C-alpha cells in the first residue's frame, strides 16, 4: 500500500481479523490498468476489469475496505514490495522467478499464449515459417519471455511497455504479429481496432496459472486463499466470469 498506512502491521491485523477497518486505513489493491478486459482505466478514471472485480469480491469476503492503485507493469512487483499496495491483482503469471520475490495465492484463472495477425495474411506459427518476421509482445511478461527464449533466434522480437502499444504497432504494420494472453487477444479482436485481425495457430503455451501476489511471508495470503474458495463456492466468481466472458476461465 502507498504509505498512508500508519504501519503495515495495522493493515495485516485488520485483514487477518476479518473485520472492517472502518475509520482506519484501506487495504490497497495494485493493478496495471492497461490490460483489458482484466484491468483497465475507464474514461471517468475508474479502474475496472475482471482482476479488479475479483479483488473487490475477495475484500468483501475478508470484510476489509479496499481501494485500487495503478502501477506500471515493469515496476509492479517492486511497488508491491515497497508497500505502495498490499496485494497485486493484475493477471500475473505464477513463475518460479517471481516466487523468489513474492508469494502467490492459488490460481484464480488459467490462460495461454496465442498469436494474432492480420486476417488473410499467410502467417504460419511453425518456427521455420516465422523466420525473419517481426513479432511484438509486452515486456516482462510470459509472452515476451517465451518469444525471446523460443523464437529469439528466428524472429525480430519487439517488446512494449503495455500490450495496448503492441496492438497499435500491429494495426499500423510495424509488427507482423503479436503474441499475448489468448483472453486479452480475444477482447482486442472484438474491438474496432482489432476487427481486421484474427488468431493464428494454436496456443503455444496453454497452462498459464494466474495468481494474486503478496509480499513474502505476508499472512494476508491465507486470508485471500480462503476468500477465493468462498467466492468460487457461492457463485460470486461465476457471476464475475460471466460479466466478461462467454466461457469459463477458472
UniProtKB/TrEMBL annotation:
Listed Pfam families: SBP_bac_3 (PF00497)
UniProt xrefs under PROSITE patterns: PROKAR_LIPOPROTEIN, SBP_BACTERIAL_3
Keyword Signal: yes
Molecular function, one GO term: ligand-gated monoatomic ion channel activity
Protein species of origin: Pseudomonas mangrovi
Domain Ionotropic glutamate receptor C-terminal: residue ranges: 26-247
Protein name, entry field: Amino acid ABC transporter
Subcellular location: Cell envelope
InterPro entries given in the database record: Iontro_rcpt_C, SBP_3_CS, Solute-binding_3/MltF_N
Protein family: Belongs to the bacterial solute-binding protein 3 family.
